[in-house]
Each structure stands twice: as C-alpha cells, then as structure tokens.
Hints:
Blueprint lengths: L3 E7 L12 E7 L7 E10 L2 H5 L20 E8 L9 E4 L6 E5 L4 E3 L14 H14 L6 E4 L5 H12 L3 E6 L2 H9 L5 E4 L5 H8 L4 E6 L3 H9 L1 E9 L20 H5 L3 E4 L9 H13 L7 E5 L4 H9 L6 E5 L2
Parallel strand pairs: 8-9, 8-11, 9-10, 11-12, 12-13, 14-15
Antiparallel strand pairs: 1-2, 3-4, 3-6, 3-15, 4-5, 5-7
Amino acid sequence: MPDRNRQVLLAETPKGKLGPEHFRLADAAMPVPAEGDVLLRVRYISLDAANRAWMQGATYRSAVEAGGVMAGGALAEIVQSRSPQFRPGDLVFADTGWQDYAALPAKTLTALPKLEPLTHLLSVYGIAGLTAYFGLLRAGRPQAGETVVVSAAAGSVGSLVGQIAKLQGCRAVGIAGGAAKCAWLTEELGFDAAVDYKAGDFAKSLKAAAPKGIDVYFDNVGGDILGACLFQMNNFGRIACCGAVSQYDGAPQPHGPRGVPGLIVVKRLTMQGFIVMDYYKERERALQDLAGWVAAGKLKVQEDIIDGLENTPRALIGLLAGDNRGKRMVRVG
Length: 333
Ligand SMILES: NC(=O)c1ccc[n+]([C@@H]2O[C@H](COP(=O)([O-])OP(=O)(O)OC[C@H]3O[C@@H](n4cnc5c(N)ncnc54)[C@H](OP(=O)(O)O)[C@@H]3O)[C@@H](O)[C@H]2O)c1
C-alpha cells in the first residue's frame, strides 16, 4: 500500500466554462478508517454531467466547495474494513471523490456483485442504466407505437433510453451533436432516426424525424432543445425531466422554454422531474431486466474509458463538450 494518496482538488469554483485551471493535483496522507469505516481503493471514477452541476450550488446533494477533493462516485474495492458489513476484496459503489483511496463509513456504501466486465457496474448496471430505465418507463410511460425522443442521445443515459424505447415497441429518435454521432445512433444502436442539433434548422429536422409528433420526450439537456420539443409534443404527451446539461457549464440562460404553461395546458402534457434514487425500491427488478436485455444482445453498452486519475479533469471538460460516446469513466487502479 502506498503511503501517500493522490487527489484531484477543485481549486476554484468556475464562474463560466470549466477548464483545467479549476483543478489541482495534490498529494495527501493516506486516510485512516475509524471504527465503522472502510478503506477503499478507487478502481473506476464515474464521470457525470452532474459533476459540473454540483459546482453551481446545492442540488439533490450539497454543493462541491472549492479547495476540497472533487466529488464523484466510483467503483471501489475494500482494502481494509472496520465494519462487520464488508470484507477486504468486496466491491462497492461509493462517493469517494477523485482520489486513489478514501475512508468512508460502511453505511454509506452500496455493495456490488463481482461480474465481468466490471465497468458495466458503472454503466448499464449503475446510475446511467437505472436512470434510463426508470426515467423512461416510470416517468415517460411509453406505449408501443408511440414516438420517444431523447436528447444527449449518444451519452451514457441517452444511448440506453433510445434502445429501451425500441424494446417497448416505440419509434426512437435521438438528438445528438454531429453527423458521426447521429450515424452511430441509427446504424449501431438501432434508433429509427437521429437529429444533429448543431446542424441548424433544428425544429424542421426534428419534425422530419418524428413526423407523427412526440409522445415521450426524455430531456437530458433543457434549454432550446426542450423548447423546440415542447412545440412538437402530442396531446397527453409526457416529458421526463432527467437533467439540463445545456445549462451546467457557464452562466444559466436567463429565460426558460417558451410555451410554458400554455402548451402544457392545451396539450394536457405531463412534465415530471425525477431523481433515479426515487425508484430504488424497484432496483432489483430493473437490474434483472437490464441484465436480461444485455445477455440477449438487445441492449448495446457503450463505454468510454480514460486512463489515469490525473486525466479526470480533462475527461469531465470533454464530456461537457460532447467528446464522449456512452458512459465515460476514468480507470484509476
Ligand atoms: N435525474 C437523475 O437522477 C439523473 C441521473 C444521472 C444523470 N442525469 C442527467 O442525465 C443527463 C446525461 O448525463 P450523463 O452524465 O449521462 O452525460 P452524457 O450524456 O454521457 O454526456 C453529456 C452529453 O451532453 C451533450 N451536451 C453537452 N452540452 C450540450 C448542449 N448545450 N446541448 C445539448 N447537448 C449537450 C453532449 O453530447 P452532444 O455531442 O450530443 O452535445 C455530451 O456527450 C444529464 O442531464 C444529467 O444531469 C440525471
């Protein structure tokens, strides 16, 4: 075991776009677990758009403060346990932050099974997979034959949402940045259509991709894309509000989408925000379904793995700029 612990600190809270200057590498003493704690070796750090949102202030968790270890979830292995709940070698999901080792109370950890590839525990069987599953099936409530549109469709959540929509017998339409990502969605993942929101004339392209209107819109981005989708919703449509990545990196837009509440009234729309943990009582069932689809080759899992703790800032900055496909994570040790 090393005697020092490498850490990535959030050196400064960004005011505008996130850059490498907002982070700093540090070298701290190895953490020592207290009674009831475990010592964890971080294996893979999950990179999430929400990491940037946490810097803006309190969300469903408290804000990340400048000067501390950058917050983040990780797949970690127990190396020392002072709790009867865990033994060395056990795998857990934990809020370790961006560092090599962390000492945390055992009661804050989620035990994970040992399966191959381990990385699926952070992608399809992790928060991304469960968010796609619950957000679409519980908040979106798609019916066979309906049109489901998802934004950030080539990202970790979105790439699964479109495929799960297809498994429900729906028409799946993805919105993503760039022709290459759009081609990947239709040619590799089986989406029926994809719209490049960076290509211009977005509303017209969306109409062509969803000619019968939108029944379910899975919103990962907010902003103008949400605004355009609202106008193309069918009566009694559902909008699953998952996130707002277009608003995370830089000053938030001063206005919300047009047509609220008017369109919601006239079209009798339901807009439902959700946090994945809301549905954790149904987690086992969801994991069984996801595993069944993966085993049957019906759900393709795309992972985007970057090596080295020191590359975590770059990995997050790139994710916000859209240079990831599927679930991004950093392999640490
Ligand atoms: N509610 C929950 O419980 C929950 C849980 C997990 C995640 N989430 C949300 O799920 C969404 C996806 O997060 P993720 O961590 O899985 O990231 P991700 O989708 O893997 O990556 C983010 C993607 O967002 C796209 N993007 C960035 N800026 C954009 C903009 N201005 N307009 C449109 N698209 C933009 C980029 O792709 P392009 O190249 O296509 O632009 C990028 O690849 C986020 O909103 C996140 O907050 C919610």
